[in-house]
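Retro notes
What went well: the complex prediction finally ran end to end.
Inputs used:
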Amino acid sequence: MTRAERRLIRRLKDRDERAFSELIEEQGDRVFNLCFRMLGNRQEAEDLAQEVFITVFKSVDSFRGDSKLSTWLYRIASNLSKNRIKYLARRHDRSKVEFDEGIDRNAASDSLTSPKQAKRPDENMEGQQLEQIMQQAISELGEDHRILIVLRDIEELSYDEICEITDLAEGTVKSRLHRARLALRKKMMTRM
Amino acid sequence: MADETINTAQFDANDDAVVELFSEYYEGALPDEKATEFSARLETDSEFSAAYKQFEKTMELLSGMHKMSAPIDFDKKVEETIHRRSGGRFFGRKAFGERIPYEILAVVVMLIAGAIYWMGRTSGTGGHKFDDNSVPEMHQK
């Protein structure tokens, strides 16, 4: 943990409101992205990402500093996401599979950063459609598989970090991830 | 790590062990010897190669997904929610001292103090300026 991070944590524990704003500014997008990829719905993701930061604000005193602050944030986001998925499943909330269509809307263009921009409009359209199909396929995975796909293959975290976030042994993470990838590939093959 | 032998005549692309091999090869986690065997099989076995390409495409799609950004007013919404839920204890209307960074306040205070001191020193009337003529002469022998 860096000195700046230790200082930020100390300020957070002192309930320094500016420190909290800094944390949101620094980690807001990453937490939102994780929530969005887990839930597949922009509004649900925003509500959940808010809950993550509210939980951080309420329980920062319990953070012992054994891990990076971002790892702890991901852990909270991961647990809350899984709970929300179960809750939505219980409610048979159709919105959980009604994944966000904002990607191809103008309104969303401000909040998107594309790592691999397509060059031509038709390529761009194809890319967006593929992304929607992929998001749909992710949303159909069980929550234990979904979180591993999001953390490893979308967020590109290391296995060590994933083990800390999920509280699982590395072997378990890897074998579950392989199964998740297999399930995802099958789902993609039926759609493409 | 996958213990399966790569050079088997038949394989099932949906088999856990095969997907594990694919995963580890894709991540560069296979030992050199196995990675070499795997590469050789990709060259010679078209069915194996096609299955791996499908897997690879899925992985590339995943890693190429857009990074979604939080809404622009996300921080404000979080603060408002905390303000509401804490009964106004946190993130209320900030006092002047909290809205302006302390560093800026300190500089402004120093500038004002400096200006007052300078005005006092240069003032013609009632200033703190040291005036030699105002000192009574000392007794001389």
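What we learned: The mean pLDDT of chain B is 81.
What to try next: split runs per interface for comparison.
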